[in-house]
Amino acid sequence: MNLANFKYSFVALASVAGVFTSCSDSDDNDFDDNGSKVVLGNNRVFILNEGTMGMNNANITYYNPDKSGDIIADIFKLQNGVQLGDNGNDLIEYNDDMYVAVYGSNYLARLNSAGVEMVRKEFASDADFRGGIRSIDADNGFIYASFYGGVVAKFDARTLEVKAKLTTTGSNLEDIVVEDGKIYVANSYAIIDGVYTYLDELIVVDARTFTQLPSIKVTSNPNRVLEADDKIFVISNDYSQESYVLQMVEPRNDNKVTVIGYATDMAEDDDVLYLVDSRTDYTTTPFTTTNTFYSYDIKRGSLSNTSFLRNAPAELASASVYSMAVDDETGDIYINTTYYTYSNGDVYRFRRNGTFVEKFDCGGQNPRAMVFMDR
User: Fold this and answer.
1) DSSP string covering 182-231, please?
2) Which uninterrupted H or E stretch holds 262?
C-alpha cells in the first residue's frame, strides 16, 4: 500500500463516498465529514504519531483497513493547513468525533470524523494546566483529562469548556480512565529537590461531585491504565523489578489489587487482554530487544503464555513495540513499533485469530494511539 503525504485520488475514492457510520458511543453513528478536503472510506483507522519532543512533528495518519485508498501520512495538516504540534500524547473517539491531547503544545482539540478541527482548548494561559495535558477519556458528555502538575479536569465534550478541575490530586499524572462513575488516574512520579521520586498510587475521583476519593496503592511508577469488565488494569514501571508490572484492580471487590505478571503494553477486546513484555538488553552492542506476546482471559481469570500471533514476521520478535490496539468491530490487532528519532515507525496488522495481514509505515515517529471508525 502506498504511503502518501497529502496525496489522494478522488477517482479511486469516489465509489466510497456517501453516508458513513462509526462504532462509537452514539446511536446515530453518522460520520461528520464537513470541511474535508478528501473523501475517506467507510471504515477508518487514525494513528496518532507522538513525534519527538521539541521537534513539533506529531501527526495523525489515516489508514483505510479495506485497502480502497492510499494512506495519508499527515491527514491533520491536509485537513487543517497546520501542524498538529509537539508531542501528541493521546487520541480517543467519542460520539463520532475524535479528541487529541498534544502534550508539548499543551492543548486539547475536538476533530470531526475526517480529522477536521472543530474546537481547540489551549492551556498555556491557565497556570493550573501549564504542566501539560497527558491523557484523556470520555463519558456521559464529558472529556476527562490528566495533567502533569497533578491536575484532573472535566470538559464539556462539545465546547471543551472547563466544567471542573482538581488541582491537588497528585504530582505527574499519566493515564486516565472512567468506569462506573469514578475516574482512575495513574500518579506516576514527583520531582523533589531535583530528584525523581516514584509514586505508588492510583488516584480515584468521583466523576459527578468531582471530589477525590481514597487512593489505591499499586506498584511503584504506574503509567498505563485500562478498563475492562468492571476492572482496572495498571502497568507500572517499577525499576526494582525485572520488567514492567501488570496489575488488576477490582473496584467491586474492595479495590483488591492482584499482580498478573510482566507487561510493557496492553490492549483489550471482548474481555481478552492482549499483552506484550518487551525487554531490551542495553549491555549488548547493538542493543537487543526480545518481545513476548501473551494474553489474559478476564472473565476466566486465566493467563495464556502462548502467543496470540500466528505467522508473524520474524523481525517483530525483536522490534521496539511502542503501542498496541484492537479494532473493537473486527477484532483486528495492530502492533505498532518505533525507530524513535531515526525514522517512521511500522504497523503490523493481524486478524482476531492472530493471522498476519500486512505491515505498513505509520507515517510518523513513535505511533502512540489509534482510533477505529467502522461502518
Assistant:
1) EEEEEEEEEEETTEEEEEEEEEEEETTT--EEEEEE-SSSEEEEEEETTE
2) strand 256-262
Type of residue numbered 266: M
Picking from 157, 130, 156, 133, the residue whose alpha carbon sits closest to that of residue 145 is 133
> Residue 330: phi, psi to the nearest 5?
-100, -20
Using the structure block, give the residue that is written with the C-alpha cell 521539541: 54
Q: Give the DSSP letter of residue 150.
A: T
DSSP state of 127: G
Gyration radius of the chain's alpha carbons: 20
pLDDT digits (tens, 9 = 90+) for 93-150: 999 999 999 999 999 999 999 999 999 999 999 999 999 999 999 999 999 999 999 9
d(C-alpha 304, C-alpha 179), whole Å: 26
CA distance 352 to 330: 7
Q: Report the distance separating Cα 102 and Cα 79, nearest Å.
A: 17
